[in-house]
Write a structure and sequence with these properties.
Bound molecules: beta-D-ribofuranose, calcium ion
Number of helices: 12
Number of strands: 12
Helix content: 25-40%
CATH class: Alpha Beta
Largest sheet: 8 strands, mixed
Shape: globular
Order of helices and strands: EHEHEHHEHEHHEHEHHEHEEEEH
Radius of gyration: 19 Å
CATH architecture: Alpha-Beta Complex
Structural class: alpha/beta
Length: 334
């Protein structure tokens, strides 16, 4: 089967790590580039994490470094995110958890070099090479993509589809309505959406359905794979969190790898249902800043549909996809 040319735009991050594992493990994709961006952690860390993953999974690809801040400085950047989060939290609430570490795992020293070109140039180069077949999995803030589309006005028609982990139709995860990836660079999300490229939004409403229980995480870690040591630390992290009295009950005993569901939607589009509707991003309200406003009304659309929004997830099917991808990392029988 001909492999689909794929670029992974990412801010690794633990759930990015699982998504990238699946991109390699499913065997369906020709991974043309991995493009780290500021997000879960500053670019300094996400670029190192991206390189660590490319080497650990043995992915022969370009690792092209992207943006170190959102499109506009000011309201929320990576470095002041904690401060903004503090401003939003109510007295007596625990501090926001600002993610970042890619599990508690020491990756072997990388064996590759970063690509000499920046992410936006590599995205364009690969889109031209792929002649309209390029698919993009975007699992971090959309800054790199917005920059690529802004720099190269002929890029949009060369991209076949963008599948994004981001946004939410109901609640947020870092503010009442703000999902992290969109909140970090809502301008980029809004700009990318405006280009009219086929766009799938896999938001929090969908990813919350694709959880892994402790037993399911253990099953992944116990498989005899080359990446079991990393998966073991992922499992240990969720166990530790589950035993930590400071963690809210709904985060105990299970985890969600948000980005992995977006990847699963590319591997098997039937894993989740989608609704074609209008999505806009709130860019001015101090309360709803970064909200993806999804038109949920059946007939009264607020404009032409511009997005396929993920709805109902088949969790069993999702878990099977993850396990199938892991099979590719099984140690060879001697
Ligand atoms: C998203 O934010 C990041 O922390 C995760 O990697 C995921 O892409 C979930 O809101
Ligand atoms: Ca991510």
């Amino acid at each position: 089967m001909k492999k689909v040319p794929l670029i992974i735009d990412t801010d690794p991050g633990g759930d990015d790590a699982i998504a990238i594992m699946m991109a390699k493990g499913c065997g369906m994709f020709d991974i043309r580039a991995i493009c780290p961006v500021n997000g879960n952690s500053p670019l300094r860390d996400t670029k190192r994490n991206a390189m660590d993953l490319a080497c650990y999974y043995d992915i022969d690809t370009r690792v092209a470094v992207g943006a170190n801040q959102p499109l506009y400085r000011g309201l929320i950047t990576n470095s002041n995110f904690k401060r903004v989060a503090k401003m939003l939290k109510k007295d007596g609430e625990d501090d926001f958890q600002y993610g970042g570490q890619m599990f508690d795992f020491a990756f072997p020293a990388p064996t590759k070099e970063f690509d000499p070109l920046p992410a936006w140039d590599v995205i364009y180069e690969e889109a031209v090479k792929a002649k309209g077949e390029l698919v993009i999995l975007a699992i971090g803030p959309l800054t790199n993509l917005a920059l690529a589309l802004g720099k190269y006005s002929d890029l949009a028609p060369l991209i076949k589809e963008i599948v994004v982990m981001g946004g939410s139709a109901y609640a947020g995860n870092h503010t009442p309505v703000g999902e992290f990836n969109v909140l970090i660079d809502p301008w980029a999300f809004a700009m990318v959406l405006k280009w009219g490229i086929p766009f799938k939004m896999v938001g929090l409403d969908a990813t919350a359905q694709a959880y892994h229980t402790l037993d399911e995480l253990k099953e992944m870690a116990d498989m005899d794979t080359t990446i079991a040591p990393m998966l073991k630390t992922a499992y240990d992290g969720v166990v530790a969190r589950s035993n930590d009295p400071n963690f809210p009950p709904h985060l105990k005993g299970r985890t969600v790898y948000h980005d992995a569901l977006a990847m699963a939607c590319l591997i098997d589009p039937e894993v989740c249902s989608f609704r074609h509707t209008r999505v806009e991003v709130e860019l001015s309200s101090p309360i709803a800043f970064g909200q993806t406003v999804v038109d949920k009304r059946p007939a009264l659309t607020a404009g032409e549909p511009n997005c396929l929004v993920a709805q109902k997830v088949d969790r069993e099917r999702y878990l099977e996809i993850v396990l199938r991808c892991l099979e590719a990392f099984k140690k060879e029988e001697k």
